[in-house]
Design brief:
The longest helix is centred in the first third of the chain and has 70 residues. The chain folds into 2 domains: 80 residues; 58 residues, no CATH class. It is an all-alpha fold. Helix 3 crosses helix 5.
């Protein structure tokens, strides 16, 4: 009799396990089907994105080629400025000399070209010229 009860209990446990396993298998099959369906949809989305970016790249390349051909540039590809280029460009300070300052500079160049080395070191024009040269040096550094 104990064997019959033991066998009945074992049969009941096996049926419960079978039911749990069937549910789990069904769940795994549904997940697998969804994964493949989503995979196809995701693949389609990725292909669309790729095509869009490819068209953008081709349009940009055509625009670059147009500019290169128009201005006869010796480069094969124009590039977008990098973040580093933008930072460097912001640091540059453009000091333009006014026409009055340009005239003074030219006059000073003429005056110093005539004078000797000793006179250059002592003349006011030379000091002013050195001052302008220092400003010009600061401009380019």
């Amino acid at each position: 009799m104990t064997d019959a009860i033991f066998e009945l209990e074992r049969k009941k446990k096996d049926e419960e396990k079978k039911k749990r396993d069937e549910e789990r298998i069904q769940q795994l099959m549904m997940d697998n089907n969804n994964k493949w369906e989503n995979s196809g949809r995701m693949n389609s989305i990725l292909r669309d994105k790729f095509r869009t970016k490819k068209k953008e790249r081709e349009a940009k390349q055509a625009e670059n080629d147009k500019i290169i051909n128009k201005y006869r540039l010796g480069v094969t590809q124009l590039q977008e400025p990098s973040e580093e280029d933008n930072v460097q460009a912001k640091k540059v300070r453009l000091d333009r000399l006014s026409s009055k300052d340009n005239r003074k500079l030219n006059e000073l160049k003429k005056a110093t070209a005539i004078s000797t080395e000793e006179e250059k070191g002592k003349s006011a024009a030379s000091r002013h010229l050195r001052k302008l040269a220092a400003q010009k040096h600061n401009f380019f550094t």
